[in-house]
Amino acid sequence: MSSVNGSTSCTWSAAAPSSRPSPPIAVRAGRSSDRSRYDPGITDLHTRKLRYFIAVAEELHFSRAAARLFVAQQALSRQIRELEDELGTPLFLRSSRRVELTAAGVVFLAGARAVVDALDEAVATTVRTGRSVTGTLRVGFCPGAALELTEPILSGFRDRYPDVTVELHEVPLSDPSAGVAGGASDVGIVRAPLTTDGIEVETLFTEPLVAAVSVRHRLADRATVNVAELLTDPITLTRTEDAAYRAFWSLEAFRDGAAPRIVETRSVTEEVQFVSAGGAIGVTAAAAIRYMPHPSIRFIPISDAPRSTCAVGWRADAANPLIDRFREVARAVLEQAPQLVSAIEDPFGASAGTGSTTTVG
């Protein structure tokens, strides 16, 4: 059943004006002296009148129809009389006891419903089309991505924009921008800091750093360590040309200009093998405790190290409007999952870095 509430300003015109106007259509039913004033080339039937007529036809009671439409009964009666005058035929038989449809009214009801239903559907379809978001978004991510928030962000985006094609691809750690810098990705889930020339980032969360050491390492039994205790060890580092990324993960800011002894690796697997064998230590985000457990490796919080930042990254000159929508979804997920964000940002509890036992092995 078509909704009849409201009074839209749309109009129903049966046909556009032609170069040769059609003669007026005479409709005779009940009042033989009446002649229809409706001319499809001249007269427009306002959809308000159609909705009013449908309401009265369904209620067969002017007072109830007026209440349903939230209009005065007098105004409703006037609109129905105008409609009947335009058509040149009565649509209702009125008496003090009841209201009935005339034969013409029965015919007109079917047509009016069809017109109003078609109009409502056209409006709804137009609105849906106008709001529909389509296109393709290429999302790059490095191993680990946004940790436990990755799935909610991606699924949340798919749910909100089902007509968008999302292309996911994992990018090796040698490209900390997750494909954004080279244009392979429209948006990336990245680990900052990285060389940001031309790249914008929006932080998702931060987390503490840990030292990954062999169970045979001299510091393996420590609850926490500080950066100075790690500077003499060889340190694993992904092969990358990104200077900011290399400086952060090699603890360059703490070395007073001394060059670190770098053991370059091409993957997380290689890094794990070097560390577990005692050939080097690794500096990584605390999530490695959950995502890279290994019986021969201890992960120890670094009490005075800077925090690792997980962020959404995109090119500043990017033209894809879906990037902003992806960022909006990511922000919404963060707002909806504060406890999860807190657990990621403070995996050791509020006392982390103050001597509490946080070694995992």
From TrEMBL:
Region described as Disordered: 1-40
Comp. bias (Polar residues): 1-12
Record GO terms (molecular function): DNA binding; DNA-binding transcription factor activity
SUPFAM superfamilies from the UniProt entry: Periplasmic binding protein-like II, Winged helix' DNA-binding domain
Top-level lineage group: Bacteria
Matching InterPro entries: LysR_HTH_N, LysR_subst-bd, WH-like_DNA-bd_sf, WH_DNA-bd_sf
Ranges where the HTH lysR-type domain occurs: 45-102
Gene Ontology CC terms: protein-DNA complex
Keywords: DNA-binding, Transcription, Transcription regulation
Record family assignment: Belongs to the LysR transcriptional regulatory family.
PANTHER family tied to this protein: HCA OPERON TRANSCRIPTIONAL ACTIVATOR HCAR, TRANSCRIPTIONAL DUAL REGULATOR HCAR-RELATED
Protein name, per record: LysR family transcriptional regulator
Naturally occurring in which organism (per UniProt): Nocardioides cavernaquae
